[in-house]
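User: Hi! I have a protein structure encoded as tokens and I'd like to know what sequence might fold into it. I'm fairly new to this, so please keep things simple.
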């Protein structure tokens, strides 16, 4: 009895006379104003913050209306706050001449913060392949660490995996399939200059995945060969580069021979879903979109024929 009595906690005078709404407010996160110079970026943040046209639009909006959506931060031991979500809003506020920003302060461990940071940024309309690559890698590593801990430590991300692989967990709430996520993560093995080519659409995504299997030195050599020939590898060429590398037979001469070949002219046309999806109602299935496209093409073809007959 004595030991149990020690665990009894007596409520303070203030707690006894609090209303239910006041007690609820104590448990909820509050929005507070924080000095901009007290906010620091998330370490190894994979998403670029660029002063582009969209940034200028955000600056104008903040000047007129203020920051409508608070940033999410977590406290640091040095008194600063680490941005988990809202790097662009933070930058735009600085450009807008503001000194403070509305923020939600939340206690999070490193892995929980990574998961929130990645998920909030994957909602952007435009994301570079390199950004997705490193974001997925960060999230995968965080989930792997969570999976290696007791179940009680997984409550901050709301998933105890239930026997699933980490990449399967990511795919459940991501715009990409499990296999596509793994392909994106492969891109993190590319040398920066080659990865930049992918971002600039100078190298096809699937070709880049194959090239990612080359060693670092081989990739450096390949970049020189690509610059010299002013070209980028097709999927077929990238596959052969990978095979020669795996066989230990890839050198600058082999690269030059492969990349000097004339590429076969593609006879097939591929319309990517994300390219044409915006022209259709959200409820349309791929089959319905295909039928509509064919119908429009048939109408266009008949119109062309009538014009030629005049």
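Assistant: Happy to help. Inverse folding works backwards from shape to sequence: for each of the 310 positions I chose a residue that suits the local structure. Here it is:
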């Amino acid at each position: 009895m004595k030991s149990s009595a020690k665990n009894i906690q007596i409520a303070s005078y203030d707690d006894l006379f609090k209303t239910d709404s006041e007690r609820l407010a104590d448990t909820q996160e509050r929005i507070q104003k924080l000095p901009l110079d007290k906010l620091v970026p998330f370490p190894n943040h994979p998403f670029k913050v660029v002063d582009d046209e969209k940034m200028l639009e955000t600056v104008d909006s903040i000047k007129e209306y203020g920051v409508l959506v608070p940033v999410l931060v977590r406290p640091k031991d040095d008194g600063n706050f680490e941005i988990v979500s809202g790097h662009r809003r933070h930058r735009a506020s600085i450009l807008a001449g503001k000194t403070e920003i509305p923020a939600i302060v939340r206690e999070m461990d490193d892995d929980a913060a990574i998961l929130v940071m990645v998920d909030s940024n994957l909602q952007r309309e435009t994301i570079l392949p390199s950004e997705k690559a490193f974001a997925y890698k960060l999230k995968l590593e965080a989930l792997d660490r969570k999976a290696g801990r007791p179940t009680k430590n997984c409550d901050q991300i709301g998933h105890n995996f239930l026997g699933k692989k980490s990449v399967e967990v990511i795919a459940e709430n991501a715009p990409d399939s499990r296999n596509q996520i793994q392909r994106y993560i492969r891109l993190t093995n590319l040398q920066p200059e080659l990865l930049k080519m992918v971002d600039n659409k100078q190298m096809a995504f699937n070709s880049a995945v194959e090239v990612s299997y080359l060693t670092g030195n081989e990739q450096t050599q390949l970049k020189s060969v690509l610059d010299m020939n002013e070209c980028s590898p097709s999927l077929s060429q990238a596959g052969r580069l990978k095979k020669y590398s795996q066989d230990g037979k890839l050198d600058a001469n082999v690269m030059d021979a492969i990349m000097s070949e004339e590429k076969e002219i593609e006879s097939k046309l591929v319309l990517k879903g994300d390219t044409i999806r915006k022209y259709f109602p959200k409820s349309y299935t791929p089959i319905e979109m295909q039928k509509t496209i064919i119908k429009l093409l048939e109408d266009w073809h008949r119109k062309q024929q009538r014009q030629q007959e005049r």
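A useful reference point when you look it over: The chain has four domains: 29-107, 109-189, 200-268, 273-301. Feel free to ask if any position seems puzzling.
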